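anyone seen this seq b4? input:
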Amino acid sequence: MLLQTELNAFQAAWKERAGGDVAATIAADNEALLRSGLVARALQAGAKFPDLRLATARGGQTRIYDALTRGPLVVTFYRGGWCPYCNLELRAYQSALGDIRALGAELIAISPEAPEHTLSTAENNDLKFEVLSDVNGALEDALGIRFDLSDPIVALYKRFGHDLPSHNGDGRWSLPVPATYVVDRAGRIVLAFVDPDYRKRLEPAAAIAALRKIKVAATT
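predicted toks r here
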């Protein structure tokens, strides 16, 4: 089953539970974020992926460019383990991990969650790839994908029990829009998927197709 098919099915069931008013608030906020110009400002294919250090799930530090010395990367940003759409995406990429590694590439997932929550997300979804924390949003800012939540969404999240300033440990009501990048060994972004609608994600098959192109280019 396609990832987007699973996401759409979850969204349809969620709308019935949440009610029309909540769904309308979120839809309007997504539309406003789309009109904000965030996508146009975000780094696109052809740009260099930022070279920063991030916190690992077990409290260490790692540099994404160290992983690039071993091969290309698929780097996907998710909002947090509290987000059911993110968990569906993470599990879909876990299922594709064998195909990604068969192409000499690696997979990294990144969120603004504090490391202890990142560890829980990895364990709860049985993830076998690196899951990192961009606690202060430096990488998200460098990519141009972080935004501050609107007042109506903050109110909804408080109602749902999502205390992001505490959960993420940065004191801010901010998130990255879900984004996925395929990066070659030189650090060049060859595919960039950035969508303000968090209910839409890049299919793992699209990332794998981009990795195949990198492999072909490297052998010609």
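The radius of gyration is 17 Å. The beta strands are 53-56, 61-63, 73-77, 106-111, 130-133, 146-148, 174-176, 179-183, 189-194. kinda curious what u guys think
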